[in-house]
């Protein structure tokens, strides 16, 4: 799995924290890792972007970003309003493929959800994933509302000829409610893809050393982790 595309059901669902966890687990398994933020919006030139945040949390990764636009909008809109060149899906695919020649794993993080537009032609992360023929991980919220959004994302991936690699819950609450607990078994059902982990709420605020040592425990073996999905499901059962 040299390239793994990381999408989510939307923005602010924990894609960056999950990307950092996947990167940390891969690093601790001895793999080299690159992280590519396809297009960064809402961040000024001197601020830390998502790829930098992954490097801060996970450690020695190659952090790359194709473009940065100041306004917190979809990349296509932000590029147009800034009078800047947009990022095209082919550029995302080309850069990811280039990084994959010198890294064991390349993680590509989108902006917002799967169909967020990168350019005026309506190019999306799904198009880039298709060009790469890469598996796509869906980051989903834990609570009420996630089932519909996750199923829509999984269906849209399949409509593009892409297979979802699985689902990771981007922020698992310290005190899960009924819907959170039911969703542990319902999410893989609606996505027709395995649940591959759950990143605890607040993980992004951990000190990097704690983040790196704990990250493998949040992710399934397929993502270089030690997370036991069945035990988690039993523990969290309603
Ligand atoms: N598990 C978590 N631990 C700590 N903070 C989290 C966690 N999940 C999400 N957050 C917080 O929620 C916010 C959104 O998370 P994140 O940046 O990962 O979103 P995203 O899905 O990557 O969105 P974007 O589309 O902007 O890339 C951030 O402020 C982040 O600190
Ligand atoms: C600014 C934000 N944090 C993301 N980088 C961009 C999210 C775009 C979402 C667009 C939408 O789906 O309406
Ligand atoms: Mg992010």
TrEMBL record:
Compartment(s) of residence: Cytoplasm
Enzyme Commission designation: 6.3.3.3
A Gene Ontology term for the protein's cellular component: cytosol
Keyword Metal-binding: yes
GO molecular function: ATP binding; dethiobiotin synthase activity; magnesium ion binding
Record's catalysed reaction(s): (7R,8S)-7,8-diammoniononanoate + CO2 + ATP = (4R,5S)-dethiobiotin + ADP + phosphate + 3 H(+)
Chief localization: cytoplasm
Active site: 37
Keyword Metal-binding: yes
Protein name: ATP-dependent dethiobiotin synthetase BioD
Binding site for ATP: 12-17, 50, 109-112, 170-171
Coiled-coil segments: none
Annotated positions binding Mg(2+): 16, 50, 109
């Amino acid at each position: 799995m040299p390239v793994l595309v990381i999408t989510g059901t939307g923005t602010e669902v924990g894609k960056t924290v999950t990307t950092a966890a996947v990167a940390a687990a891969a690093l601790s398994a001895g793999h080299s890792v690159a992280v590519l933020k396809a297009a960064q919006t809402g961040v000024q030139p001197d601020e830390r972007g998502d790829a930098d945040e992954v490097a801060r949390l996970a450690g020695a990764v190659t952090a790359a970003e194709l473009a940065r636009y100041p306004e917190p909008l979809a990349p296509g809109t932000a590029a147009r309003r800034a009078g800047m060149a947009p990022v095209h899906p082919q550029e995302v695919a080309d850069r990811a493929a280039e990084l994959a020649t010198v890294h064991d794993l390349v993680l590509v993080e989108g902006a917002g959800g799967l169909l967020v537009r990168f350019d005026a032609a309506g190019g999306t992360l799904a198009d880039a994933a298709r060009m790469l023929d890469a598996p796509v991980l869906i980051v989903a919220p834990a609570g009420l509302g996630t089932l519909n959004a996750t199923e829509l994302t999984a269906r849209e991936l399949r409509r593009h000829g892409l297979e979802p690699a699985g689902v990771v819950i981007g922020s698992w609450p310290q005190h899960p409610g009924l819907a959170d607990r039911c969703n542990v078994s319902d999410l893989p059902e609606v996505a027709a893809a395995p649940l591959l982990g759950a990143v605890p709420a607040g993980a992004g605020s951990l000190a990097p050393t704690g983040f790196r040592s704990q990250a493998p425990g949040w992710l399934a073996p397929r993502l270089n982790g030690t997370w036991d999905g069945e035990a988690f499901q039993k523990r969290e059962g309603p």
